[in-house]
Design a protein that fits this description.
This protein is of the alpha+beta class and 71 residues long. Helices cover 54% and strands 14% of the residues. The chain contains 4 helices and 2 strands. Strand 1, helix 3 and strand 2 form a beta-alpha-beta unit.
């Protein structure tokens, strides 16, 4: 399960702004995007990931991602 990989990560970045910065700087390896997130907010992030070659994994809900990140 991809969410288990979050708990093994050395560094976790949470939030659209911080994640976008990590993608733009080349620090992000994988980005998890919740299916229930507002498309207007995450679309630019997903596009940036595609441009930078960062893998995007879709997860069913923000709650699942939050639980995996312990927030």
């Amino acid at each position: 399960m991809p969410l288990e990989d979050i708990q093994k990560a050395k560094k976790i970045v949470v939030g659209t702004r911080q994640t976008t910065k990590a993608v733009e700087s080349g620090a992000a390896l994988v980005v998890y995007v919740a299916e229930d997130a507002d498309t207007k907010i995450v679309a630019p992030l997903v596009q940036s990931c595609e441009e930078k070659g960062v893998k995007v994994l879709r997860i069913a809900s923000m709650a699942e991602i939050g639980k995996a990140c312990n927030i």
